[in-house]
Amino acid sequence: MRSGRETSEGAGTGPPARHRPLRDGQRGATSLELALLTPVLLFVILLVVQFAMVYHARHIALAAAQAGARVARGQETGDWQSAARSRAESYAQQIGPNIITGVVATPSGGVDERFVDVEGQAITVIPFMSLHVHQRAGGPTECFRPDTDGGVSCESQQ
Question: What is the percent of the chain with per-residue pLDDT over 90, rounded to a whole number?
């Protein structure tokens, strides 16, 4: 017969179950594993944050290129290159001054189509890791094109 102090396992009453004693070679193993895995885990977290910043910087560069392309496509005559360049660079600095740095806008194209390329460096979260960002936007210039066989170019209107 059992005494009042002895209970079956799982009943929840009585003294706590004793753990198996650790061997001398296993003492501190958990602390050592944690100490070794913590830098790896932190590096993976920083890597995820770094690529999220690059993704965000690409969106900022694309928005700046689209803003510059709107200016470039809307001006039929004049110095559309400098207007598009200044609009794209100022827009990038306005919406993401700390996310993308060293912004350079390069307008290109001709009479019928105009494009703006925006390049820069994404913010660095991981030291010594520099990631380049490049986006391009553009399209046909906005001019009247008559609905005839010869109305596919803007050249004849200038």
Answer: 53
> What confidence tens digit (pLDDT) does each residue in 70-101 have?
999 988 777 899 999 999 999 999 998 899 99
Please give the pLDDT value at position 129. 86
Contact 109, 50 (CB under 8 A): no
**Residue 50: both structure tokens together:** 């770094």
pLDDT tens-digit readout, 115-133? 999 999 999 998 888 899 9
Give the angle 60-64-65 at the CA atoms, nearest 5°. 115
The 8-class DSSP code of residue 36 comes to H
SS3 labels along 55-101: HHHHHHHHHHHHHHHHHHHHCCCCCHHHHHHHHHHHHHHHHCCCCEE
In a 3-state reduction of DSSP, which class is residue 54? helix
Which CATH number applies to 29-153? 3.30.1300
- For residue 29, give both structure tokens: 């193993």
User: Rounded distance, CA 102 to CA 83, Å?
Assistant: 19
| Beta carbons of 157 and 144 less than 8 angstroms apart | yes
Instruction: Give me the count of residues in the chain.
Output: 158
Give the number of other Cβ atoms within 10 Å of residue 137's Cβ. 22
